[in-house]
Amino acid sequence: MRKLCVIGDPIGHSLSPVIQNAMIQAAGLDYVYDARRVTGEDTACWLKQAVAEGYVGFNATMPHKENLVALADELSEDAALFRSVNTVRLKDGRVYGHNTDGAGFIRALREADMDPAGKTVLVLGAGGAAKAVVYKLVEAGAAHVTVANRTVKRAGGLCSQIGAKGLTACGFSRETLCRHASTSQLVVNCTSLGMTGARGQFEDLSFLEELNPGAGVFDLIYNPAQTPLLAKAQGLGHKVANGLGMLIWQALFALEIFTETKLDGAVMAAAARQALEAVV
Q1: pLDDT in tens, 58-101
Q2: Active-site annotation, residues
Q3: Domains in the chain, ordered, with CATH?
Q4: How far apart are CA 25 and CA 234, in angstroms?
Q5: I need a surface site. Which of 54, 71, 72, 247 has the fewest CB within 10 A?
Q6: Residues 6+ away with beta carbon under 8 Å from 190
Q7: Is there a cis peptide before residue 116, judged by omega within 30 degrees of 0?
């Protein structure tokens, strides 16, 4: 049986083993997937240990995603763009770094009937998650993307780093969010506001009242399943989706990289959702 895992610190909360083992079983693959606590300063040591212990690959969460960029022998296009690695394939003595977050996000968006092509999008937050989201929104054909952040300079830096046309940076004030929401067909929350265990909530969600009918609201948070942002948007009649779909699809794409096998996405996603119902 071939070994896979997820590393992070902390790691006890990770749903990756539940998702991956459900998909592995559904696909009839001879793999097992576990979780390993690895501290940020031990990323390089872990790579040597993983090879010695016979791991085929592993997923990585905080604080390893950025550390692995410099440690990989080769990076996929997305990993190089985002400067972040969430999936590592170990093969023939080499370390291959990938990032499946962006692809998982776009697949989940489309699954929720929120295809960004041709749309004006308001992205909340300018951290690492937002970087992957904005890159993929541009790649998927979004007409315009506004990045809103409490620190406008950080939002502007993200837009400059991506360097695409049709990007705007703005602040997080009620007036600013209302103005941009009024012209947006999609809102994506990339902040931790509303997450279980995280400090802070949105101070004012009235900007959602400015959205046009038919606009969608996607929250990368999946715990809780319905954040205050999604509850407010749903109450206003908008399409909403949380980050569980993204979590499942990025995991599926990672499993395809590990196994070098094209998997039935619908079957794998259904197996993962069924397994998660027992624990979430």
Answers
A1: 999 989 999 999 999 999 999 999 999 999 999 999 999 999 99
A2: 65
A3: 2-99+245-277 (3.40.50.10860), 103-242 (3.40.50.720)
A4: 35
A5: 54
A6: 123, 124, 125, 126, 127, 129, 130, 133, 220
A7: no
